[in-house]
Every structure is written in structure tokens, then in C-alpha cells.
Amino acid sequence: QVQLVESGGGLVQAGGSLRLSCAASGLSFSMYLISWFRQAPGKEREFVGRITRSGSSTYFADSVKGRFTISRDNAKNTVYLQMNSLKPEDTAVYYCAATIGPSTEIRYINHWGQGTQVTVSS
What we know:
single chain, 122 residues, 50% strand
């Protein structure tokens, strides 16, 4: 079956960096648009960024633009979220998501990972 497994979360001080990984199996990985979402306690899940199937293009929410980057290695079925200059407000559970269609709206997500916790201390 399809699995998306995130890793790399943890506790980091404000201003620090983390790199999250999302390893996929059970799907034709290169056919999927991959997105990252996050959900803080008491808040709705929100879009963070996404990368196209080839990896040639990325798009980010304004809140992380300039600080986060996304890359993918289709040979390894893995996507990476590099997070720099982290802020306490980045604290959340981070999820990767796979979409076969063109939209990254939550209602169109085909597969979700289980999430990984990122905590940024001030």
C-alpha cells in the first residue's frame, strides 16, 4: 500500500535549521505533486509549500517564503523540506502529502504521511 513516512523533526532553537524528509513507497512517485503542510495545536492544517513532479518548480506560503526550500529525488522516492531561520511560530506537526492532480488543496490530497513534530524554542 501507499506509504509516506516523514522524518527529521525535533527540537531546535529559534534561528536554527532542520531538514525533514518524506520517503514514499507503493506509488509512482514521479507522477505526484508533493506538498508539505503543518498543523499547530488548536489550529487548522495549513499549506507550507509544494514541489512539482520533476522538481523544477516550487511554491511556498508567504509565512515561510525565503526561509524554507523543497527538493526531491525521484530516484530515491524522497522529498526534502529544508527549514532555515526557524521561528517559534513554525512549531507544528509537519505532514507531507501526495497529489496526482494539479491542485494542492487539502480536499484533493490523495495520500498523507503520519507527520513529524517540529518544535522551535525561543
